Amino acid sequence: MSANKKTTQRQGFKTSEFIVYPAHGVGQIMAIEEQEVAGAKLELFVISFIKDKMTLRVPTAKIVSVGMRKLAEPAIVKKALETLKGRARIKRTMWSRRAQEYEAKINSGDIVAIAEVVRDLFRSEQQPEQSYSERQLYEAALDRLSREISAVQHVTETEAVKEIEAALAKGPRRGPAKPEAAEAEDGAVEEEAA
């Protein structure tokens, strides 16, 4: 295989670069190895997902089909953060169907789609509790988003989470519809407390 063909297969990915692998999130290319499989030489990216204590070996020829990509450009990260400030869009479909859609968005590796999941499943202090499965999906999406933002902006994941939460806080008021009306009805309770 010529050096030129190898470079094309690698799609411009280099050792020690951080990448996004849709099914697992942000990883780092530790090495590029050659292995012989069934008599054919195969070039592999060795990708480490430090937080998950996991290493993947992905044939360089397969990276396009698995959707591996470079970290998002700062402009796309900005778009993802803007998405968080938007109004949550929750379809009136069964939770199992919505959960599948959220899962698909998380595993798409698309940072804006992941931001949509974070936005839609976010609960502020004043809101009702999330179910266990909602919380799990929210945490998974938040984790993916914060890891990529931290890698792009060279900040810690904690700082990235703070940035995400600050963007969510700027969103439209999230809470039960018309809380004023509810308060007016139980004015008696307020008087007792006073």
Provide structural commentary.
Strands 4-3-2-1-5 form a 5-stranded antiparallel beta sheet. Helix 6 (132-153) crosses helix 7 (157-169). The chain has helices at 3-10, 63-66, 74-84, 95-108, 111-121, 132-153, 157-169, 179-185, 187-193; strands spanning 18-21, 25-37, 40-49, 54-59, 69-70. The chain has 2 domains: 7-70, Thrombin, subunit H (Beta Barrel), CATH 2.40.10; 74-169, Methane Monooxygenase Hydroxylase, Chain G, domain 1, CATH 1.20.58. The chain has 9 helices and 5 strands, in the order H-E-E-E-E-H-E-H-H-H-H-H-H-H. With 194 residues, it is α+β, with helices and mostly antiparallel strands. A hairpin with a 3-residue loop joins strand 1 and strand 2 (25-37).
SSE layout and pairings?
Elements: H1 3-10, E1 18-21, E2 25-37, E3 40-49, E4 54-59, H2 63-66, E5 69-70, H3 74-84, H4 95-108, H5 111-121, H6 132-153, H7 157-169, H8 179-185, H9 187-193
Antiparallel strand pairs: 1-2, 1-5, 2-3, 3-4
Helix pairs in contact: 3-5, 4-5, 4-6, 5-6, 6-7
